[in-house]
């Protein structure tokens, strides 16, 4: 009875046609297996379209071969660290959800992933000890790039990447001596950074001294690699620990 009611309601609001195995909605001459037309192309109703299933996150278990090409709409308002809102299809040959985008989009770099951390780390209390940054925000149309539960960056696709880091540090209090620090970009479980920069905060002439840092480079990564950012103070800390001056940001751009 419920199915009959839905079918009657559908037929009442639209016209259904069938011709040579093709089905047409609001068109007597369907030109494909399913051909849907608006009731009026000049003055279309506000429901003249198709709604695909909406999800706020992708299934925990990946779809299989039978679902290759399956479409869903991701509404990332409740899960902003998952990916950009939009239509995705399941690409079984590459075992991933692929974002559907227009090639005419000029305002977004669709091969760029932006990670940010606020705050970048707690205050440094010991010299020559690396303090890890926990990232808490990601901006990308590719849901394969993630932030894990430790706040680390998870690479979503194998390739060669341009990497750009920006971030600032400062002394927490006025001091009569300067500060030497280092910021490093680490890959997986490496104990030494792949890229790093030395930072010198000279003796402040007016309470605090701060600086912003940029690290750039090119790196080859594979899907599943972990990237972390760490900061350490290389001279005596004492009563003048190093603290974040700005948020930390990391931009990855796929060069392939």
UniProtKB/TrEMBL annotation:
It comes from Chryseobacterium carnipullorum. Residues 1-20 form the signal peptide. Keywords: Signal. The lineage of its organism: Bacteria, Pseudomonadati, Bacteroidota, Flavobacteriia, Flavobacteriales. This is Uncharacterized protein.
């Amino acid at each position: 009875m419920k199915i009959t009611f839905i079918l009657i309601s559908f037929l009442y609001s639209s016209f259904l046609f069938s011709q040579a195995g093709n089905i047409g909605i609001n068109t007597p001459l369907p030109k494909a297996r399913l051909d849907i037309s608006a009731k009026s192309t000049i003055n279309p109703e506000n429901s003249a379209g198709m709604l695909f299933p909406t999800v706020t996150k992708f299934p925990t278990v990946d779809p299989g071969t039978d679902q290759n090409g399956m479409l869903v709409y991701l509404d990332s308002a409740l899960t902003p660290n998952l990916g950009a809102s939009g239509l995705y299809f399941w690409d079984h040959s590459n075992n991933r959800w692929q974002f559907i985008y227009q090639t005419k989009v000029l305002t977004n770099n669709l091969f760029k992933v932006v990670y940010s951390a606020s705050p970048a780390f707690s205050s440094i209390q010991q010299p020559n000890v690396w303090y890890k940054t926990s990232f808490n925000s990601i901006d990308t149309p590719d849901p394969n790039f993630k932030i894990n539960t430790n706040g680390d960056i998870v690479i979503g696709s194998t390739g060669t990447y341009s990497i750009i880091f920006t971030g600032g540090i400062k002394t927490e209090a006025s001091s009569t001596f300067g500060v030497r620090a280092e910021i490093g970009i680490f890959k997986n479980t490496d104990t030494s950074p792949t890229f790093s920069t030395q930072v010198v905060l000279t003796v402040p002439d007016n309470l605090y001294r701060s600086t912003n840092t940029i690290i750039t480079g090119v790196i080859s990564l594979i899907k599943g690699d972990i990237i972390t950012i760490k900061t350490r103070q290389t001279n005596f800390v004492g009563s003048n620990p190093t603290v974040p001056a700005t948020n930390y940001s990391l931009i990855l751009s796929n060069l392939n």
